[in-house]
Input
Amino acid sequence: MTRVLLRLTVPVQICYFEVGRPQVYGRNNMRTSDTMNRHAATIMIFAITLSACTTVSRTASNPVEARWVGRSAGEFFAKYSPPISDSTEGSTTVYNWRGGYNRIKQQNGRSTSVSCSAKIIVSDNYIIRDITIVSDRPGATSSSYCTELLANGGV
Output
């Protein structure tokens, strides 16, 4: 989660326009209606500034990301096996994972040994932020064994 600190400053002199003629009031001698105008203007500026601060969610580029990004890494490792290595990069941890060892019958009728390797980036609260397939083989029903295993819940 990214936090943004906004610091708004109020000028010493504020200019208000009433029926086409400007009137400048110092900070200490403002009238009540001018104070209300100042509060309304401050709230409006704050609202506009706040509306510009939006969170852009990442669109999953494949079915594996769609299933696992945003979920617990513990859930992933419990289901498919622990990672083979890890490294820390700032507040994230990068795990190298290999698993899904299996012997499957492919569409052409041949049996073959398959497995899947992935790089999993996990935030400091152990939530998967990105998952990238590193090595893959053709699956039993598609061109990707990793997709069959990780996106569809197993083969």
